[in-house]
Specification:
heterodimer, A: 486 residues, alpha/beta, 18-stranded mixed sheet, three-stranded parallel sheet, 11 helices, 22% helix, elongated, B: 164 residues, mainly alpha, Potassium Channel Kv1.1, Chain A, 2 domains, three-stranded mixed sheet, 8 helices, 3 strands, 8% strand, disordered N terminus
């Protein structure tokens, strides 16, 4: 074996180092850096003089878009490749947007190079301006990926323009974020017959946003659908109808829209559905009667349609409690249920009957519930999944009351397959530390003494100063970890 | 398809340009498309001998590194390419080399058709040059400026937008 020089193995000393690499590799390297940096390598040496002009990846970051429009043709004029694989533009402070038609013609020139992937990110500070996306981006024979980031506005509703939308090769579309639920959205999706991956983020404003009554998400090839809708206050509910027979992954964060499947999504594997509201947003309705039976009814029907998914993660809170309407759902599920009092627990346990195969359950009772909501009374039968399927249960935000203990006792004495029960108590800020410690120890001891039907079940308690596991609890002696921050 | 006669031999021998022999596990060798192709061809012929693959372009020092990389990556299944641990390892692996070694490694990865290593090297070099000035790039990579000052000024002028 040759002796091993460890780090430096100089064998190309007589040559320029980087220049010894073949052109194809150097161009590969240059295509990974911003195009202006790549262009500066033209002065390195004769070898490098025109290397960068073979780039097929156009990656430009600039701080003003007028700058962009003035150099784009200069750059394109030098690039020799008739085809661009990728066009990536990052505008960091687009406060001086050029005229519509100038931007439009710039992008038209870019698209003339048969670009396959376009990434545009126009994101800067809080006071960002709307970015009017050039409409020519929605009419390209070659685009495979289109990702737009920033405060996106698109004017596709002007007469005649909608007919021009044509993206026959597009597979991935991402728009993060839209200020409206625009009328053109459905027709746009319909104009992308090969679309596989759709990612939409909405940030709606109740005053300015235009919100369509319904959006048809029709995609024969759609496999991944991601919708994230945020709204500054309650707005009109949009009806999102999903017609995607090949859908595999579905992720929805939206407390506002109705969803429904035109056909059952029989290929669905992963589903994540979060119907919770922002707490700030919820405040507005504190006093309002917020009975929305139609919504709950429609959404329970929607969730029922996900019965074939392997994994369903459902995040609900008391306002979006669709359980009362659920019929039968099957599969492996994880449910997070925010903000219920103990009386909500009874509802929850009863509706577990509809999830016979549920294995993991997480419940968060984040806020101090009203006293009258805090009485435990057991349901008159034990849900099947609690009795025979549930493996882990995590509960956040108990109050260490006797009723809490009764609930935990009910769970432990019925869940015969339980492997872990994880309990975190509500953290009280105003109490004396020594008192909290004493109280938590008491509660913890009583918890560990509760009879367990599953002999292998570990109970883990986590309080503000005490953390302990039932595995180390013997003969009434509690061993715990203590945190005592000042 | 591996033929029955030779599939019992799970190792092949790779010879570096400076005539050192490396005994390599087939699974590790298959990380290189070049080696994999050679192995497949030999096995199709149904040889019972130990497969010897000479690499005329790769010195033993560099081959050692390529094989170290292949060995690590062979441990992870194909679907594990996004594994965080593996990514971290990749980064640490490249970080210890000087640019001359990195260059030779890149060439070897290209020659041996080890695509993920080639990608990794290109990205690593790209990341390290993207914020450098022209002068710094010349210095670090030892590139001789063969332009006259006038020529250099002309080019800068022509690409003025890039030299802001």
């Amino acid at each position: 074996m040759a002796e091993s020089k460890k780090l430096s193995i100089n064998e190309v000393e007589e040559e320029d180092r980087l220049s010894s690499l073949p052109d194809a590799i150097l161009i590969d390297i240059l295509s990974r850096i911003p195009i202006d940096s790549a262009a500066t390598t033209s002065v390195l040496s004769h070898r490098w003089r025109y290397l960068w002009t073979s780039l097929t990846h156009f990656n430009l970051s600039t701080d003003s878009s007028s700058n962009f429009t003035s150099i784009i043709d200069l750059i394109l004029g030098q690039l020799t490749s008739p085809k661009l694989a990728e066009f990536r533009l990052h505008l960091s402070s687009p406060l001086d947007f050029p005229e519509h038609d100038i931007l439009e013609s710039c992008f038209r020139h870019v698209l003339d190079r048969s670009v396959e992937k376009v990434f545009i990110d126009v994101r800067c500070c809080f006071f960002e301006e709307d970015f009017w996306v050039p409409v020519c981006l929605f009419n390209s024979q070659f685009l495979v990926v289109l990702e737009l980031g920033g405060k996106i506005k698109v004017d596709l509703d002007m007469c005649g323009i909608r007919d021009l939308i044509q993206l026959p090769k597009l597979k991935k579309l991402k728009m993060d974020f839209l200020l409206d639920v625009p009328l053109w959205l459905g027709p746009l999706i319909r104009s992308c017959p090969l679309l596989e991956d759709l990612d939409l983020v909405f940030k709606l404003d109740v005053v300015d946003s235009e919100i369509a009554d319904c959006v048809d998400i029709f995609g024969l090839n759609l496999k991944t659908l991601n919708i994230d809708l945020e709204s500054s206050s309650k707005t009109q509910r949009t009806k999102m109808s999903i017609d995607a027979p090949k859908l595999v992954n579905l992720e929805i964060r939206d407390c506002n829209s109705h969803y429904y499947f035109v056909h059952d999504p029989s290929a669905l594997v992963n589903a994540y559905i979060d119907l919770r509201m922002d707490y700030d947003f919820e405040e507005e309705f504190e006093d309002e009667e917020f009975e929305d039976d139609d919504y709950l009814h429609l959404m329970s029907k929607f969730v029922r349609g996900i019965y074939c998914a392997n994994i369903l993660e459902l995040k609900l809170q008391s306002r979006s409690n669709i359980f009362t309407y659920l019929a039968c759902v099957d599969g492996r599920f994880e449910i997070t249920f925010d903000d219920i009092g103990l009386d909500g627990w009874k509802d929850l346990l009863l509706s577990l009957q509809y999830f016979p195969n549920l294995k993991h359950l997480k419940v968060k009772m984040l806020r101090d519930p009203l006293m009258e909501h805090n009485n435990w009374c057991p349901p008159n039968y034990v849900p099947d999944c609690l009795a025979s399927k549930l493996r882990t249960i995590q509960i956040w935000g108990l109050n260490e009351t006797d009723d809490d203990l009764k609930l935990l006792g009910y769970i432990l004495s019925n869940a015969s397959h339980l492997e872990e029960l994880w309990v975190r108590v509500f953290i009280k800020e105003k109490c004396e530390k020594a008192y909290v410690l004493w109280k938590e120890c008491q509660f913890c001891k009583s918890l560990f003494e509760l009879p367990r039907i599953s002999s292998t079940c570990e109970v883990v308690f986590s309080g503000s100063s005490v953390t302990a596991s039932s595995n180390t609890f013997k003969n009434g002696n509690l061993i715990f970890q203590m945190s005592w921050d000042d | 398809m591996a033929s029955s006669s030779s599939s019992s031999l799970s190792r092949v021998v790779v010879k570096s340009s400076d005539n050192n022999l490396f005994v390599v596990n087939k699974k590790v060798a298959s990380q290189s498309q070049l080696l994999k192709q050679c192995i497949d061809n030999m096995e199709e012929k149904g040889t019972n001998d130990v497969i010897l693959i000479p690499l005329s372009n790769v010195t033993s020092n560099i081959l050692t590194l390529v094989l170290e990389y292949c060995e690590k990556h062979a441990d992870f299944a194909d679907d594990d390419n996004n594994n965080q641990e593996l990514k971290q390892w990749d980064h640490e692996f490249l970080k210890k080399f000087d640019y001359a070694t990195l260059n030779s490694l890149t060439m070897a990865a290209d020659y041996m058709v080890t695509k993920s290593l080639l990608n990794l090297c290109c990205q690593f070099i790209a990341d390290s040059i993207k914020d450098l000035t022209v002068q710094q790039i010349r210095q670090i990579f030892d590139i001789k400026n063969d332009f006259t000052p006038q020529e250099e000024a002309d080019i800068k002028n022509e690409n003025a937008w890039a030299f802001r």
